[in-house]
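Subject: for your reference before the review

Hello V.,

The reviewers asked for a structural picture of the protein, and I figured it would be easier to keep everything in one thread rather than splitting it across files. Below is the amino acid sequence we used in the manuscript, unchanged from the supplementary table.
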Amino acid sequence: MIQGRIEGYAGKLSYEPGEELTLHLSSRSETEVCTVEIARIGRNREVVWAQNEVTVIHQSTPEDAYARGCDWSATLSFTLPAEWAPGYYEVLFRANGDEVLETPAFFVLRSAQSVTSPKILLVLTTNTYCAYNDWGGNNLYTGGVQVSFERPIAPGLLRRPPGELLRAATPHGTYDPELARQRDYIDRHRVSGWSAAAGWFNWEEPFVVWAEENAIELDYAVSSDLELHPEVLDGKNLVLSVGHDEYWSWGMRDTLEQFIAEGGNVAFFSGNSVGWQVRLDDDGRTMTSYKYDALTKDPVRDTDNRRFLTGCWSDPVIGRPENLLTGVSFTRGGYARVGYGAPRGTGGYSVWRPDHWVFEGTGLRYGDLVGSENVVVGYEADGCEFVLGEDGLPRPTSKDGTPETFTILATSPARQWSNTPSFTDFPANAALAEDEPGDLEFFADRLFGSTDSSAARRLGHGNAVLGMYTKGGVVFTTGCTDWAFGLRGHDPLIERITLNVIERLCAATPVDRHKATDHHYTGM
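And here is what came back from the structure prediction:
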């Protein structure tokens, strides 16, 4: 993995105009002189600030910086101007003569609470960025249980070379069960091996570009703002989640579920959404999740706070399946077009209910396929338990927490990875070690208390489920991570459906709300 001559991070993930931005930089050598450039990324890349001849010194990095942060001193600071628009801001550090791929920092600028702001809020999936960020040696997939936001982002998660596209899912063409093309790209461009799984570049950037091309005005926030700054939802009609939105705290869910109960709308153009519970610690500077080991290692497991256990949200110990919020769950979905252990499907959804307003203006009919050209059903998918009614159409059982008002509009096959031959008609997956249990075994154990074949087969045939429910406000979901690839590819049907959802759900009366009740984890 490449290491920049200069690396750094912003003092916070998100700011309001008028707050002081701090940039914490360090050089590989004793000192470097560089240009620092800040640009807002949207339909166009707009440079809003630059300073030449910035001297950067080498700052020591703790061995456990991935968990506790770098603790670097601020190199630069200034007050964020009131005229800067809300958005995602990229910070580049270019050392003299540096021609390698830049490893930028970023921050998000929220609208000031004192001004009229856009009615649509895009919440960037920054908890998931942090979970996959392996800068400093570890992430939540390589043995870490605590990860810090106060460190640089590994190369490839925020920015990549133009041209060739890196995806977790195999696009159409020769199927790649060994993930050879992905590994080759990572080796050639020296980006993080986790960069196809998370980060701004994969999904949120193409979504924002498309939105601005279609004159859709967005306000911005980051994952942790839902817990730490719940006022970001004041006056909003619609909250958006895009891409891979896996890691959520109890307080984040409290805030968004209250927003929905009060009539606010949410659209999850995302998958594997709300999969794992995390705790935001150290005033939001670090994030903790024990994941698969939560029941044996998380300190809250035997306390009165065990509902804050950092395992999967569908675990009965937590008692708050993600279906209650999103309508769907990764436990009933899985993987699509990734490795040996997942369906080599069409990459699109089969339509069940074409007369629904979501499909207005598309000309789609029952059984039509949508999104396959750009493989919008790829990587990770969320579904729900359902049965076919007398009319042959799917309806949720609601036994898994999916609201009774949830309407299934379209589906596509997905599958949990497994390494147990008797559990699956798929070969073992290249991403799993030979003796490593898959998600199929893990979820069967947590949901049904058994890993025998009868329990595993209850989860063995998943689906990406596109649908919605109403419970105060309306919640829509695509049930898959890769919807934004259809917007990147300008698929007219994906664009029309996205516009239908945004236009309908943004037209509601803005929610006038007060600060959410403080129910987030505060310690043992």
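For the response letter, the relevant points are probably these. The first helix runs from residue 65 to 68. The two ends are 38 Å apart (CA to CA).

Happy to draft the paragraph if you're swamped.

O.
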